[in-house]
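Note to self: keep these together.
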Amino acid sequence: MVAAEVSRLLRQDRGQLLAALIRAVGDFDLAEEALSDAVEAAWVHWARSGVPRSPKGWLLQVGRRRAIDRLRRGQRFRARVPELTIMLEEDEAARADDAADIPDERLKLIFTCCHPALDRKSQVALTLRTVAGLSTREIARAFLDTDTAMGQRLSRAKTKIGAAGIPYAVPDRTEWHPRLQSVLTVIYLIFNEGWTAGAGDAPIRDTLCCEAIFLARLLGQLASEEPEIEALLALMLLSWGRRSARHRPGAGLVGLDEQDRRLWNRDVLEEGLSVLDAAVARGAPGPFQCQAAIQALHVQADGPEATDWQQIVLLYDRLLRFQPTDVVRLNRAVALAETGALALASAEIKSLAVALEDYQPYHAARAEVFRQIGDAKGVALALERAIELSQSEDERRWLEARRRALF
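Structure:
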């Protein structure tokens, strides 16, 4: 029971707990160490005395005390006395309230991580580490980086926040502009990490997807006039509405063109389409509107054969103006192949070979284009490489099933 509860809390509430501790102690590394200490204490105390009435509040309280202990033992004790006094007062107040409620500080944490003093890549990476709880390896994979390089980037970003005295707060609306795109990118990457399963056996990590949707809704409440916030929410809802059809027990993932559309949640999809319409009506297009519009064309089609691939290619052309990345070029090439422009699609994919050699979806896309061309050897080699690079057992089963069906 203790193991299950600790696992559940770390899976569902780590981001909220860490955000609350960072707000309390003002130091990323100290907050992570204190939370780790609290989890270790939980294993011992809960096994002996049972899981407390408010396990999340218990972890926050113990984490705060462990942070205080670490400060008292540290060399910077005198410099931190004012902060320590405040922490002691908060700890006393929390004890009186039995620590039943924890303020949700995640949005403050995202804005802190996305301060303009950090470069865009560091903003996103640090938020994924702290808010979503992704490992350095998972974040490195998202950026096609090495684990070492990403670890160094995260360390430098945390040091810079401390040295620059970046405030832990949601800034005034007038200060949002330099940070908003990074904030939205972070929230979408949190969703995407859950949606694509990442490493391990779980087909979809529901907690990450739901957390991202929650954060987008919260952001929308603070800035209801921002079309890109609406577009991001629409994009996630248009994927989330297909959740029940995306996985077949024992068989792995199910591609969009093979999904049983009767399993789709039409209420969620209709909400996504409605939110996208509201964003488009504001007349300020952006990258998330392009991506959401592409998803809308997929879900509105009566079936795979009715998908408007010509329109999707045009949307990718526009998206490339906002995000001229190799991954967008790859997705555009796949759409080109679906229109029948196989020579153009093949040439584009070939041009991405070096940049995306270690990117699993690249090889899955190569396999699909080779299949349409009729290159059986190319399909086999591409699928073999895609399976080799896959981080998810569920994804591997899906790719292996495709290989068996073709050969």
